[in-house]
Amino acid sequence: MSSTTTTGTTTATGARTEEAAALIGGARERIDALDDRIIGLVQERMAVSAVIQEARITSGGRRVNLSRETAVLGHYRDALGKPGTALAMTLLELCRGRV
C-alpha cells in the first residue's frame, strides 16, 4: 500500500493506523448496509400505516389513534431510553402520511 493511499484511508476514517482504518472501513460498510435495511423497514412501516389509516377513515374513524401512538412511544422509550422517544416521534410523523 502506498503512503498516499494509507494517509488517505486513515484521514478518511480518522484512524491513526492502517489496521484501525481497515476495521473502521469495514464497520462503516456494515452500518451503511444496516441503514439501507432500516430505511426499507421504515418505508414498509409507512405503507402498512397507510393501510391502517385508510381502513380507520373509511369506517368513520380518525386518521390518527392517539392511544396507539402513546403505546408506540412507550415501547421505544422502554427499549432505547429517552432517545427512543424522539426516534418514535419521527417514525410516527413519517407514518401519519400527508394531511
Automatic annotation (TrEMBL):
Source organism, top-level taxon: Bacteria
Keyword line: Isomerase
Residue span(s) of domain Chorismate mutase: 18-99
Entries under SUPFAM superfamilies matching the protein: Chorismate mutase II
Pfam families to which the protein is assigned, alphabetical: CM_2
PROSITE patterns reported for this sequence: CHORISMATE_MUT_2 (PS51168)
GO molecular function: chorismate mutase activity
Annotated protein name in UniProt: Chorismate mutase
The species this protein was found in: Streptomyces californicus
